[in-house]
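Onboarding guide, step 5: your first structure request.
Type a short instruction followed by the sequence, for example:

Predict the 3D structure of this protein.
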Amino acid sequence: MDVYIQHNDVNLYYATNFNAVDLAFYVTEMNILIVPDMEKERALKESKVEVKSFGDLGYHKLRKKMDSRDALAEMLIGFLKSHGVKKVGIPENFPAYLALKLSNHFDVEITNPFIKMRAIKSEREIEFIRDSSKAAILAFEFALKVLRRERSCDRVRERIENYLYLKGYITGTIVSSGEVSAIPHGSGGFVEDHVVVDVFPRSRRHRYYSDFTRTVIVRRNEKIEEMLNAVIEAQEKAISIIRDGVKAKDVHNIVCDVLESYGYGTLRRKSKEGFIHSTGHGVGLEIHEEPRIFENDDTLRTGMVFTVEPGLYYKDVGGVRVEDVVVVKRDGCEVLTRYPKFVRI
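The system replies with structure tokens like these:
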């Protein structure tokens, strides 16, 4: 018998609907969730699979003879052997001490079936992402009000994150201006001619993310506005070709085509400034997941949810980015973060 074991992370939550706090395991082929004794009652209420506790599998007896790590390993080994397991699949971030112990008894392979499974979202998952997308837009509109009186990007970021937390979301947020905005994930500085605001909230209730970016024009700057208009055109053309069956690389290449037509550098041309990252990434239980929208040959399928976020970054001018989350449909796509692209205050 071959099995795959997932330890406590978003994949375990995806498979079982149980948010594990301590180390827990899910054996896919047996559809069994293995949790510490103190978590068994909660797991029985929350999860949609069979639940076993460490105590059920003999952990406490083993613990009297050896340390906790060895007891945990022996518990898993004994359980798997009792079911005739010969081969075990584990994810790449599986605890190393357990992987080594398992490899002494089974053929162990590093793999993760959930990565591709999670790339196609159910209608329920799409609604969760839609909810977080609405929160991102509300937070951005709140940020616009703050920007009218606040000049510290760090302070604006703090206000956004506090706003979202009180509404039931945790978030990472990027707010940058001036030369800091030339670093794609750079955050900080003081408000100059423009501000990049990137909000990626995750609901504390359903745990799904969204991701939304706008570049806000504060004072006229011809170079920045030219860059922003080019990025908006590139994004709109990319979104216009997204549908079931399109290659990820085609979406990325159309962004590069537009930006290069205006004379901007791209990573495709090995440029160190300009458009220096991929066009997008999947969004769901993690802020970065499948699919990748880059130079890869992956085929887009109905139900995939990902960002389309071209940007341009130059040290002597600053950076601009526009980002939306889309869901692939059979004959097109739906933008979940619909909002004006060019924003000026």
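Each response can be followed by summary notes, for example: The chain has a mean pLDDT of 97.
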